[in-house]
Recover the amino acids of this structure.
């Protein structure tokens, strides 16, 4: 099975859904099976997840419960994207890794959200890549790659075109790991990618065409790999 995993970051799922963007994103994703690839798309939590997690935390919920609430939000987002893609049974979102293979036996594109507490959707995308034998995860986010610091807050931040797994882990070593705070890459996702040699390419998903370019091998965004 030739496959690729794509993570669509939370930027694509504001509290008020942008139907135009979801349609443009779906239009690009539909092109990938034309390249002979099976596609697993993992939706992030976005504004809905952050809002619900903040409310749950303020009400005294433990982090595990906040994670569960975030997972539910990712599955809602996955359903929206499934509808945009025109998939049959858009509400049947995989809830376990075993569901992915079964779904890919029936169709070329599977859309999913989170799986379990303590595990970001970045990690889910890498696990999906491992399961399907994919060598690449494309993460679509709202910056054009990985920087030495958040370029929105630090204008002098430098873009890093390529990093090893260990270099990426070092860069992210001070990242918060509470529910809803995975902004760039989850360190767990990098560790999972390292064990199986899966490369992660971070691209600017605000232009969905970058996802297709990355899958075709273009040198866009930033690459984390061996």
């Amino acid at each position: 099975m030739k496959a690729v995993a794509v993570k669509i970051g939370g930027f694509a799922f504001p509290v008020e859904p942008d139907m135009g963007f979801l349609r443009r994103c779906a239009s690009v994703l539909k092109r990938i099976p034309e390249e002979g690839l099976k596609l697993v798309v993992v939706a992030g939590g976005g504004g809905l997840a952050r809002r619900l997690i903040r409310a749950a935390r303020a009400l005294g919920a433990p982090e595990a419960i906040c994670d569960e609430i975030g997972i539910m939000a990712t599955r809602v987002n996955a359903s929206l994207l499934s509808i945009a893609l025109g998939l049959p049974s858009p509400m049947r979102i995989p809830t376990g890794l075993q569901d992915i293979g079964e779904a890919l036996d029936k169709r070329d594109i599977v859309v999913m959200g989170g799986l379990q507490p303590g595990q970001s959707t970045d990690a889910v995308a890498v696990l999906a890549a491992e399961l399907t034998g994919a060598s690449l995860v494309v993460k679509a986010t709202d910056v054009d790659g990985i920087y030495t610091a958040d370029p929105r807050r630090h204008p002098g931040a430098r873009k890093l075109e390529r990093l090893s797994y260990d270099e990426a882990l070092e860069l992210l070593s001070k990242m918060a790991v509470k529910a809803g705070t995975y902004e760039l890459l989850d360190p767990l996702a990098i560790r999972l990618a390292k064990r199986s040699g899966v490369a992660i390419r971070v691209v600017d998903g605000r232009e969905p065409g970058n996802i297709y370019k990355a899958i075709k091998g273009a040198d866009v965004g930033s690459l984390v790999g061996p």
